[in-house]
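look at this one:
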Amino acid sequence: MNKETIILGIDPGTTIMGYGILKVNGNKTEMLAMGVLDLKKYKDHYLKLQRIFARTLSLVDEFHPDFMAIEAPFYGKNVQSMLKLGRAQGVAMSAALYRDVPITEYAPLKIKMAITGSGSASKEQVADMLRRYLNIPQEQMLPQLDATDGLAAAYCHFLQLGRPESSKAYSGWKDFIAKNPERKRDTTKPT
């Protein structure tokens, strides 16, 4: 990679969405921003989804990322929580796809392995490694680890650049449908 590249990392959630923006120039990386979208004050799930879409779109419009890296939902026992998390992820992905930003999903285990070398690393260990890799002063570290989880997704993508692309990378809506034909429905027939 010779040109400057911007990577938006997202840790989706319906209570807190974490994000991090990474600038890559060759092998040099720099954190441009990280933060959280706190959704706890909203009781309406659909309003939360609207806020996730709006915030993700504003990050895309402000930083013009070349890629979005998003943490894939992990499988839990609570089906309702999984459904809500999947919706949050889908809405964030939709905002990126709306601006034709290619997306790659990473499992939490893969992100932890890429950052720390251990799939069982704690969120605190991931945050500390990112602080060291990116030379982030301690006082700039946020107490919400969702922010560093978003940044970790971006850093994981940086580490994957130059390797064969994941089968889950999408360059836009048409590419998403081409790689997920089961998601396409016939709009000429009533449902």
Summary: Residues 35 and 147 are 5 Å apart (CA to CA). The first strand starts at residue 4 and ends at 11. The chain has one domain: 4-183. The beta strands are 4-11, 16-25, 28-38, 67-71, 103-106.
